[in-house]
Amino acid sequence: MKRKFSFLLFFFFFQVVLADLKIGFYRNTCPRAESIIFGAVQKRFSTDKSITAALLRMHFHDCFVKQSEKDAGANQTVRGFELIDEVKQTLEDECPLTVSCADIITLATRDAVALAGGLNYTVPTGRLDGLESNVGEVNLPGPSAPVSDVWQLFIAKGLNLNDMVTLFGGHTVGVAHCNFFQDRLSSPDGSMDPTLLNHLKRNCSSNNNGNPTAFLDQKTPFVFDNQFYKQIKLRRGILEIDQKLAEDESTAKIVSRFASNPVTFQKSFANAMIKMGNLVAKAGEVRQNCRVINKAKNRRSQTIS
């Protein structure tokens, strides 16, 4: 049965141009931009700790674009759009057609990670919002993809193996629906801890929900820490691809390093997020409404030099 891919946090945008971004891009044109974004994220986080995972996923998918791309199977359950809409409206009132939706998502994700316990890293800004949206470009691998295949996707984006393993660490605050790891429960191969296996079997067979979810980090699911790596070293990875990271000879040492040193992981994650966030569209615009491209009268298209 073909399954709809809808859970992963770690696969991301489809633009491949390294942009000339800078720290404090809005210092003169919209000086309160970053504080407005932080305030909105902080308010949401105070009542919904899962917003960190939602924004991480949105940022990695980078799909806050025209409806056609949002309709792609990989993006249909990405959530948090209403928070970005709220922030965008506030910023449009403050400084119209100035702060891009791409920058809002990037900054909001940084803030959510920090609120959950991660590093409050500095983010360069100046991204533009894309002018095109093609559902055919949304091509993400499933939860059983070989490590080598996933690695090739990262290489194609200018990211290395350490970046890949680092960004999988976003799963420390994520969840997955049972249908994405049901095969590991029905046909166990010994790669999952028996206690976890039995727990997930009970959870996934619950009649209260046709497709329950499970935390990808069973220990501290709302804290942005290195617990994900500790869990997969103990054979407590929920998704097959997560568990493979701890077993594949190309990634096992990186997993061990992050599992034993939380500071190393936090710094590596911040660096990988900045590096990934620098891959943006060369040509674009600052959208007035994040859900659609601008009308001709508000077009003001730009090109990154």
TrEMBL record:
Keywords: Calcium, Disulfide bond, Heme, Hydrogen peroxide, Iron, Metal-binding, Oxidoreductase, Peroxidase, Secreted, Signal. It catalyses: 2 a phenolic donor + H2O2 = 2 a phenolic radical donor + 2 H2O. CDD domains: secretory_peroxidase. Its cofactor is Ca(2+); heme b. InterPro entries: Haem_peroxidase, Haem_peroxidase_sf, Peroxidase_pln, Peroxidases_AS, Secretory_peroxidase. Residues 1-19 form the signal peptide. It holds the Pfam family peroxidase. Binds 2 calcium ions per subunit. Residues 20-294 form the Plant heme peroxidase family profile domain. This is Peroxidase. It comes from Xanthoceras sorbifolium.
